[in-house]
Amino acid sequence: TNLNSGSTLWSLCGSSLLVGYVYDALSCALNSLEPCVTEAAARGARQAETEDLTKVEVEHVEKVLPQLLLDF
């Protein structure tokens, strides 16, 4: 592959068009993941509350993760 300045790939990678696509892709991924992360935190908090604890640990989120993945 020739990546000189006249190549289509090279001009695309050097342009702001690619930056716009990357920004759009990251924004879309964030918008898709945000509800899942919020729900995981809420379910982890409920799990900790069920165990009469006031602090949510990773273990609480791990306990609810299988059902969370099935729900999404």
Automatic annotation (TrEMBL):
Key words, A-Z: DNA damage, DNA repair, DNA-binding
GO molecular function per UniProt: DNA binding
CDD domains: HFD_CENP-X (cd22921)
InterPro entries hit by this protein: CENP-X
Gene Ontology biological-process annotations: DNA repair; kinetochore assembly
A Pfam family it matches: CENP-X
Family listed: Belongs to the CENP-X/MHF2 family.
Protein's name according to its UniProt entry: Centromere protein X
Organism: Anolis carolinensis
